Amino acid sequence: MKTQITEMFGIQHPIIQGGMHFVGFAELAAAVSNAGGLGIITGLTQRTPELLAKEIARCREMTDKPFGVNLTFLPTLSSPDYPGYIKAIIDGGVKAVETAGNNPQKWLPALHEAGIKVIHKCTSVRHSLKAESIGCDAVSVDGFECGGHPGEDDIPNFILLPRAADELKIPFVASGGMADGRSLVAAMALGAQGMNMGTRFIATKEAPVHDKVKQAIVAASELDTRLVMRSLRNTERVLRNDAVDRLIAKEKALGASLKFEDIIDEVAGVYPKIMLEGTMDAGAWSCGMVAGLIHDIPTCKQLIDRIMAEADAIIRQRLMGFLTA
Ligand SMILES: Cc1cc2nc3c(=O)[nH]c(=O)nc-3n(C[C@H](O)[C@H](O)[C@H](O)COP(=O)(O)O)c2cc1C
Question: I need a labelling partner for 59 at 20 to 30 A (CA). Which of 9, 213, 242, 250 fits?
């Protein structure tokens, strides 16, 4: 399949693996890229720019295909060394960067000068238009269904994607709720040039996370995610567990007076415990509603090949069949 996204990133299939904290290590990024998609290393999971440089080098040893790095500009307890991370990306010869969170304008000249394509993740049409106006090359339009931070507008992809298509000139991929060939064809019908997946890629053989995390996704249904931190305007979609129930109870009790410090035990520093050690109730971790569509743990290649074969069959047989019946 050839789209503006496959052309822009030099990949075979229009499928991107979104940056994921303590999931997007070199193993997963390389596996996705080797399977013909665009794998993404999560920049801030590496504690320093030096460690990111090593992770990029490790990924390059595992694949000769293009891969990217995610840089997330979110409210964190201490501000990361962003200039250092940008330098590690440029020096590492990476040609794709997924930015998320705040406006990446400040970093675009350096990235573009190094020949890097920037895809900015946005949860609204207005942020997508802003990304276009500041010179981003593409947008990842992240609907309300998504795992992680869906923003505060709550617009699902059936509305958000065609709205983005009506307004944007730069290409975009659909993100949030994407799992299979049906998702890809639907996203493209709504105007996207490809799709971005997070949760689906966690439940793969190569994702270097504890098996309990993968099993939790397979066991979950579309009813099992919750939105937390809404009153802090930092809404996150997470998989329900004991820590999340505790967090929601605190949110209910404290209402508008809730502060980050009140929920620090449930959200700060919990990712390594969950993703690496498999301590599933250690805190709140991002997970999309798409868990309801995930029933197995294939390799990245099996997953991507299956998605492309399914998309092909939907277009050629099911959809063409309606026209020729
Ligand atoms: C466990 C997990 C961690 C994530 N961490 C990040 C992150 O650090 N930075 C970021 O931009 N997006 C992050 N995301 C969002 C994904 O990149 C992607 O946009 C999202 O998962 C898409 O929705 P889906 O899960 O329905 O596919 C994370 C998602 C998950 C599930």
Answer: 213
Distance 147 CA to ligand 1 centre (A): 5
Closest residue by CA, ligand 1 atom 13: 20
- Reported as half-sphere exposure (CB side, CA atoms, 13 A), residue 180 has a value of 12
52 and 175 in a single domain? The answer is: yes
* Ligand 1 nearest-atom number relative to CA 201: 27
Closest CA to 20 of 87, 98, 78: 98
- Give the model's pLDDT for residue 306: 99
At 77 the three-state DSSP class reads coil
Residue of the nearest CA to atom 6 in ligand 1? Answer: 20
58 and 165 together in one domain: yes
Q: Is the CB of 145 under 6 A from ligand 1?
A: yes
| pLDDT tens track for 197-255 | 999 999 999 999 999 999 999 999 999 999 999 999 999 999 999 999 999 999 999 99
Same domain, 284 and 241: yes
Question: How many domains, in total, are found in the chain?
Answer: 2
Q: Please, how many CA atoms are within 13 Å of residue 99, restricted to the half-sphere of its CB?
A: 26
Distance, CA of 230 to CA of 237 (rounded, Å): 10
Domain finish residue from 178, 207, 236:
207
Q: What is the pLDDT of residues 136-191, one digit of tens each?
A: 999 999 999 999 999 999 999 999 999 999 999 999 999 999 999 999 999 999 99
Which residue's alpha carbon is at the smallest distance from atom 21 of ligand 1?
198
In a domain, 312, yes or no: no
User: How far is C-alpha 320 from the chain's CA centre?
Assistant: 31
Pocket test for ligand 1, best of 286, 293, 294, 307 (most atoms within 8 A of CB): 286
Rounded to two decimals, the pTM is 0.98
198 lines ligand 1 (CB under 6 A): yes
Query: 215 and 188, same structural domain?
Result: no
Domain extent, residue 58, equals 4-207
